[in-house]
Amino acid sequence: MTGDPGWPWATKLVGAGHDPEEVAEASRQLIDYANELIETKRAHPDDALVSALMRVTEDGDRLSQSELVAMIFLLVIAGSETPANQIGNAVYHLLSNPAELARLRADPSLMPLAVEELLRYDGGVGTASFRFTTADVLVGDVVIPAGDMVVLSLNSADRDEAHFPDADRLDLSRNPRGTLAFGHGIHYCIGAPLAKLVLQIGLSGLLTAFPELGFATDWAELHWKNSTLVHGLTELPVRLRA
Ligand code: HEM
Question: Which of 230, 115, 126 is nearest to 175 (CA)?
Answer without folding.
Answer: 115
